[in-house]
Amino acid sequence: MTSWICCHLGAREHYAAPRSLHRRGQLRALVTDAWATPGSPWTLVPGMTGRRLSERYSAELASAAVYDFTASLIAHEANWRVNGLQGWPLAIARNLWFQSRAAAKVSECAVRPRTVVFAHSYAALEIFRAAKAKRLTTVLAQIDPGEAHPLIQRAVADGSPAFGPPLAEPPAEYFANWREECRLADHIVVNSEWSRDLVTQAVGECGNVHVIPLPYEPEPGSEAFERCYPDVFTTDRPLRLLFVGSIAAFKGVPALLEALDQLPGLPIELQMVGPIAALIPEQFAADHRIKWIGAVSRRDVMDHYRTADVLMFPSHSDGFGMAQVEAQGWKLPVIASRSCGRVVEDNVNGLLLAEVSPDAIAAAVRRVLDPTLLARLASPARRAGATLDDFGAALSELIAND
To answer: Which of 52, 259, 295, 358 is buried deepest, with most CB atoms within 10 A?
Structure first.
């Protein structure tokens, strides 16, 4: 049986890969930047740092071999802050710091020939070089659609100047290193067909890009939850649209807000949940139909799924779009773009947009003003997404077929 070393910068996907492999008895080690077991002194660190550290743990991995660099991380974060690093320079410095330490640990604890090294894109290059020096198998977890992603972000921002300038783009070396990661990867795992197509365009048709959807674990109470709709939407009980995610142009926010201009006088309320990463024109900031909630805790996001009538997910580019699956877990229909993970089956559990435009979004919203349609879209008895065990089995299958 193969054993896996999972290199984790951050708590991405709630440690889905190491947890799923640990369940199968295949996790040799988790190598991560920070780890704070219950009662550890790291959880007592004051301020935001302490709160973030308190989330860097999984009880499922309590019996696993975990190697962390928490003390070094805290010292380096303080140094980076003193030196004014932020944005892309900070992200790249953090990636390089983690790779150097993780690569050394991989060299130390790897066992040939059946050890697999798993790492996330943009923080895998030195890790994979160390793995290849040991003649180990490498699996790259691609976190987004690759170098096409910022190009899409720029194009969308250029088309909606009222919402502010494009997000800062990474330096050229960022994607040059990424292409080398892809070259060193025996397998590249993406979470959607959208990411697969864009990654393949960038690195060439190599046959080692595999789509494995992210796993979903039902929230407590979600499976028994019953969704109810009124007989008709009114000003007292409007249609409750929900947006969850970064409030940015590439997430389709301009098209979503401009769609409301085509729906005057209709009983509609739009809740915007997430950090604001764009300028909001005054006409939308002052629109009484739009509720600007801001960033909230995960628990509060679940409350919004429960009370909404439909999730709006009009992203121009998304590696997967976990909000779709979370919404489906609460039997919430989704209006989604096609540039993300395929969670929505058109006219079955939601509506797929032909394009991300105000016209297309307005047309979809007009359709779901019919409570009968919404009740039908919310009714299918279906699993919201792949399970953690499905995820682990799919990872193992990659290597079994080698």
So the answer is: 259
Nearest CA-CA partner of 291 in 229, 255, 244, 358: 244
**With contact defined as beta carbons under 8 Å apart, do 30 and 64 qualify?**
yes
Give the model's pLDDT for residue 49.
Answer: 73
The Cα 138–Cα 185 span in angstroms is 5
For 12-74, give the DSSP string. GGGGHHHHHHHHTT-EEEEEES----TT-GGGG--HHHHHHHHTS--GGGTTS-EEE-HHHHH
Query: Residue 77 to residues 34, 95, 265, 277: CA-CA distances in angstroms?
Result: 12, 12, 51, 23
This prediction's pTM: 0.90
CB atoms inside a 10 Å sphere around CB 220 = 7
Residue 110: what pLDDT?
73
- As a residue count, the chain comes to 402
Mind listing the pLDDT tens digit for each residue in 55-73? 899 999 999 999 999 999 9
Which pLDDT tens digit goes with each residue over 152-188? Answer: 999 999 999 999 998 899 999 999 999 999 999 999 9
Task: Give the angle subtended at the CA of 24 by the CAs of 384 and 109, to the nearest 5°.
Answer: 125
Residues 6+ apart with CB under 8 A from 173: none
| Local structure of residue 251 (DSSP, 8 states) | G
Residue from 172, 152, 125 nearest 252 by CA: 152
Max CA-CA distance within the chain? 67
3-state secondary structure of 81: helix
Domains in the chain: ranges and CATH: 3-215+387-400 (3.40.50.2000), 239-378 (3.40.50.2000)
Query: For residue 271, what is the enclosing H or E element?
Result: strand 268-273
Name the E strands within 191-258.
209-211, 239-244
Mean pLDDT for back-to-back runs of 10 residues, the chain (402 residues): 93 94 96 93 78 87 97 94 94 97 92 87 97 95 95 95 93 95 96 95 83 90 92 98 97 98 97 96 96 92 97 96 94 97 94 98 98 91 76 94 76
Residues 347 and 329: their CA atoms lie apart, in Å, by 17
Cα 91 to Cα 10: distance, rounded to the nearest angstrom: 12
